[in-house]
Amino acid sequence: MRSIVLAAAVVSGLVSGAAAAASPPLLPLPAKIALQQGRFDFRHARIAATDSGERAAASRLADLLHRTGSLQLTSSAEGRIRFRRDAAVAGAEAYRLIVTRQDVTVEASSDAGLFYGAQTLWQLIAASKDGTIAAMVVDDAPAFAWRGLMLDSARHFQSAAFVKALIDRMAADKLNVLHWHLTDDQGWRIPIDRYPRLIAVGAWRRPAGAAGTDAQGNPVRYGGFYTKAEIREIVAYAAERHVTIVPEIEMPGHATAAIAAYPMLAAAADPAKAPGADWGVYENLFNTEDATFAFLEDVLDEVIDLFPSTYIHVGGDEAVKAQWIADPRAQARIKALGLRNEGELQGWFIARIGDYLAARGRKIVGWDEILEGHVPPSATVMSWHGIAGGIVAAKAGHDAVLSPSPDFYLDHMQSMSADEPSGRGEVIDWKSFYETPVLPQGLTDGERAHILGVQANLWTEHMRTSEIMERQMWPRAAMLAEIAWTAPERRQWDEFAARLPAELAREKAMGIGYDRTPLQALGTFTAAGDRIAVRLEQPVKAGTLHYTTDGSAPLAGSPAYAAPLTLASGTVLRTRSFLGSEPFGEEKGWTLSAAMTRTRQASQLELCSRAVPLRPEDDAPAQDKRAVFWGDIFHPCWIWRGAPLAGIAGLTAEVGQVPFNYQIGADRAKLVFDKPETRAGELLVRLDKADGPIVARVPLGKAADNPGVSTLTVALPVQAGPHDLYFSFAQPGPDPLWMLDRLTLDPAR
Question: How far apart are the first and last CA of the chain?
Fold first, then answer.
């Protein structure tokens, strides 16, 4: 018992007293909470459950408590924690939780309701620091039926154990749909008995860049697939936790892996020979022949056998029509069907698949591009171009799931910290994510009823490891859970932030490696005479940032940061955010020095353009941690505003190269690079403007042979006062793509 009390104290200690009194540290926030007088002592309580659903919920409660605090709950007919079936609790996922001084009762009419009631009770017990929980009545049901998370296993393969752990964590926050992206240009992850080459060929690729070759110079085979036994086990595991798995088989685009395995499926005269190693949009499409539909129907038959979900996702997005335009067979099909263009041909393609699925008792769901054609009325639209597709779908009588980009795309950065993992370069901070609108305006009540729910997507192009995936998912997936479960009028960021520390403590107890960088202050340091000006930023956008300048740990009573500080060199500055009197963020510290004013990470620099900003990962070493950069891949150019050049004689630049493995089609003409003077190219430093005078040209020859980060040094002409410095690369082509990591101005000796 002692261990659960101690663990719970960690959780409850992160929640301010005022906030905790207003709302227990629950996530998602229940529909209705009525606090009562008294407290229930759970330290010697037992669980009573009768039927299979009650026992499953009781078992879930006991398991969670054991995993996060070592509390052992036993069963007894006279148990004071009771799970009870009650038809009066209306709703497929609704429950009532009643806590009195004497006992606790979880009531629901469904197994799912009992399960979710157990999740709420677990959170209350886990947050207790004295072995008791407050008396209350919780009446709860979700705002949306579809509360989804998409896992992209096509770009990077994850183990079956990882998928099961994800499902378990989703269930803990009442997420109930795992959209499983199993096929794409870069990989095919599901075995189809009638077509064994789909995994023999389609499940494996050679990575781009240095990672594509091993130490002996041999090509690397990268990928994997799930056996049917593993898939069935995962599906059953999810069902036990009331999570439905919706499989996605991409068509008519994102088909390179399938076409490499079976070239007769291709629309192009020269089909792809191997799954793609690039990110972006390949032009490879399935052709529109009857034999190809026979193949897809065979595939879907086996998918249906594996996945009992009502919905089957068929993709439908980003189908570049160039190959259909050039394919006489596609043009003949357009003419025969009386269609106007290739967009309507895609509509016909998806509708034909939708009709087949409907005949098998399933419903088609696809990305919002499926609206280009006449899809079946039963088709569900997943809106990723903002929420506009969801509005169009609802007005046309289609069900819709809102999954707007970039708001709900979990591959975006969460802060401008240099410690952020690889991903897309637009920052979607926690507050912005939580406040994403999910109730479209301008819909009638009947149209609004077509909005089934919301979903966040984990696209894994830039997520090679499970560590990166976990950091990008959590705690944003938990925020999504509240967006999906709790009515919008009950959600408010500051109140949510007060409950977030308890959620983070639960995630830590469950072994989830959530991203901590938004909880740490960012610092920018500039010279101010013989002192240092310090500008701080709080990425989490909650609470108050406090600091100390004597090396001591910040407390709630420490000075609050309100404006830039001017401090002496050698000062030990430490920062931490607080909600009221309780710590919220994580501590961050610096020992100030003049050298800090002359150093900038790439993430602290301004980009010359923002066509496609990314945080790409280096491609070496094969397994260990790699360098992560930040820049616009269309125009790698950075600006150091007001660089302190007085007394500066040189520059040290840390640079690296990443493979330009991006399918950008005609946009390749938009790439901007300076013309090189040497074979490998040079780092260019310009003064005051993008086309200003070049004050330094640093050859990249030696660095070109290093797949990791290289250090370059160069002399700079003496300048008076601050100047804007522009950094870019002159190179013969985009591959490899050179990127900045860090810059340091070197004073004259």
Answer: 64
User: What is the full DSSP assignment across 431-492?
Assistant: HHHHT---S-TT--HHHHTTEEEEEEEE--TT--SHHHHHHHHTTHHHHHHHHHHS-GGG--
Closest by Cα among 43, 250, 54, 28 to 259: 250
What is the largest distance, in Å, between two alpha-carbon atoms of the chain?
85
- Examine the pLDDT at 321 and tell me if it is beyond 70: yes
Identity of the amino acid at 307 = F
Catalytic one among 156, 179, 242, 254?
Answer: 254
Q: Is 40 helix (H, G, I), strand (E, B) or coil?
A: strand
One-letter amino acid identity for 518?
P
Look at residue 700 and give its three-state secondary structure. Answer: coil
**Predicted confidence (pLDDT) at residue 747 exceeds the cutoff of 60:** yes
What 8-state DSSP symbol labels residue 43?
T
Q: Which residues contact 511 (CB under 8 A, 6 or more apart)?
A: none
Provide the pLDDT for residue 554.
Answer: 97
**Per-residue pLDDT tens digits for 643-681:** 999 999 999 999 999 999 999 988 999 999 999 999 999
Q: If you average pLDDT over residues 385-392, what whole number do you get?
A: 93
Q: Which domains does the chain have, with CATH numbers?
A: 2-140 (3.30.379.10), 146-486 (3.20.20.80), 520-597 (2.60.40), 600-747 (2.60.120.260)
Question: 551-593: per-residue pLDDT in tens?
Answer: 999 999 999 999 999 999 999 999 999 999 999 889 999 999 9
Q: What is the mean pLDDT of residues 421-450?
A: 94
The whole-angstrom separation of Cα 283 and Cα 292 is 17
pLDDT of residue 16: 35
Q: Are strands 32-41 and 132-140 parallel, antiparallel or unpaired?
A: antiparallel
pLDDT of 70 reads 60
Pure H helices in 213-314: 228-240, 256-261, 290-306
Asked if residue 203 lies in contact with residue 153, where contact means CB atoms within 8 angstroms, the answer is no
Does residue 184 carry a catalytic annotation? yes
Active-site hit among 317, 318, 587, 667: 318
Is pLDDT of 8 > 90? no
- Chain-centroid distance of CA 398 in Å reads 27
Strand bridging mode 311-315 / 244-251: parallel
Alpha carbons within 13 A on the beta-carbon side of 666: 2
What pLDDT is attached to residue 72? 77
Catalytic residue among 184, 411, 582, 617: 184
Indicate if 254 belongs to the active site: yes
Catalytic site includes residue 193: no
d(CA 699, CA 702): 8
